[in-house]
Amino acid sequence: xxxxxxxSRYKKELPGLDTPPMPGPKGEEIYxxxxxxxxxxxxxLQTMLINEKHLDMRxxxxxxxxxxxxxxxxxxxxxxxxxxxxxxxx
Length: 90
Prior knowledge:
Could be a mediator in iron transactions between iron acquisition and iron-requiring processes, such as synthesis and/or repair of Fe-S clusters in biosynthetic enzymes. By secondary structure, the protein is mainly alpha-helical.
């Protein structure tokens, strides 16, 4: 049986992650409150932000920025996009 969570992004019951995505309290929070769908979408956005904004993940400010964007995205709040980015039509 698939484990479900009340997704913080979509505000409904959806299939959850199989394991916490990172160690520590934040990983447990994400595991308990974020759907697998939302986490996958975050991964795509994260990759776009790193590439298009040329983020160096060795830089503390870049990691802080990305963590802030992750928290906004997973809460369902507006997030940054690359300049000129046009989301695909659904």
